[in-house]
Amino acid sequence: MTVSRKIIKLSSGLLASDGAGVKLTRFIGGPDVDMLDPFLLLDNFKSDNPKDYIGGFPSHPHRGFETVTYMLAGRMRHKDNVGHEGVIAAGDVQWMTAGRGIVHSEMPEQEDGLLEGFQLWVNLPAKDKMSDPAYQEFSAENITAEIQDSGTIVKVISGETDQGTVGAVKYISTTPLYLDITLKAGSSFTQTTPESHNAFIYVIEGAVQADGAGDVVTEKTLGVLGAGDHVTLTAGDENSRLLLIAGQRLNEPVARGGPFVMNTRAEVLQAYQDYQKGKF
Ligand code: MN
After folding, report:
1. Which of 63, 72, 243, 263 is 20 to 30 Å from the Cα of 188, by its Cα?
2. How far is the CA of 201 from the centre of ligand 1 (A)?
3. 1 pLDDT more than 60
4. Measuring CA to CA, which residue among 4, 2, 1, 11 is closest to residue 223?
5. What is the reported pLDDT for 193?
6. Alpha-carbon distance 233 to 191, whole Å?
7. Cβ(181)–Cβ(234) under 8 Å?
8. Among residues of the chain, what percentage have pLDDT more than 90?
9. How many angstroms separate the alpha carbon of residue 196 from the centre of ligand 1?
10. Residue 193 Cα, ligand 1 centroid: separation in angstroms?
């Protein structure tokens, strides 16, 4: 290990509305952080007012990337055009590889109470954009929680910790790391993050510093990490919880068209045509 990653940018996100009026905060995929290759979008939804979420995300398509839904509270029902249907609840993750195309809905399975979670969009390399759609879906009890001597709890959704705990979600093109980390006040956690990966943290609760210096990332804030081969994260004077996410840079051209993310404009137009013709 040689270079410890530092926070190079903070973002408190942008309030947005998507689907049928779901209020959310967009941290990646907006003006602040347009993208962080291979990550195209990061939304956080958190509300106990049903008006903010009850409309859900009715039927819509995706092509060319992966959508990762990680729930912290509440329940969402998903249903697609090839018969896959289920509910994900607090602590559950759904990693959906849209590949060449899927049409699905994502709707709240509740009429009141708190709904909270994240959706992350992970790009696919050109060679995998037209692959068969696939799901990896795990309930909370099937996501390994590594408990360290310091009291740190690391839920390993994808990737491998330095202590060797392997995540539930595997065989993803961009070899992502997706960790949900709970740190005791003042304690630290170190994790290898290959130089070929971009990385960021999102602080759910508390406050976290990287490399023991620089900007403190506070609650509901994204901290983009700079270059390095590992990161050391330290909680402030309260217990803290954060996501640490890293993924292999693709360094490919990105053509975005709403729910389709391809390499060229022509491929995006083709996606619209294929969707309209019912080829998904
Ligand atoms: Mn979707």
Report:
1. 72
2. 23
3. no
4. 11
5. 98
6. 9
7. no
8. 99
9. 28
10. 28
- Centroid of ligand 1 to alpha carbon of 104 (angstroms): 6
Helix H or strand E segment including 272: helix 265-276
User: Cβ–Cβ contacts within 10 Å for residue 85, how many?
Assistant: 10
Distance (angstroms) between ligand 1 centre and the Cα of 121 equals: 9
Which CA distances in Å does 136 have to 10, 132, 164, 170? Answer: 31, 13, 21, 8
Distance 102 CA to ligand 1 centre (A): 9
- What is the C-alpha R_g of the chain? 18
- Amino acid 158 reads S
Q: Report whether 142 contacts 170 (CB < 8 A).
A: no
- Cβ 137 vs Cβ 275: under 8 Å: no
78 CA to centre of own chain: 17
Helical residues (DSSP H) of 75-117, grouped into ranges:
none
Question: Over 60: is that where the pLDDT of 280 sits?
Answer: yes
* Helix H or strand E segment including 72: strand 65-73
Q: Is the peptide bond before 38 cis (omega within 30 degrees of 0)?
A: yes
Is the CATH code 2.60.120.10 the one for domain 7-276?
yes
pLDDT tens sequence across 36-86 = 999 999 999 999 999 999 999 999 999 999 999 999 999 999 999 989 999
Question: Average pLDDT, stretch 137-160?
Answer: 97
- Report the distance separating Cα 236 and Cα 223, nearest Å: 15
Tokens of 262: 């391809």
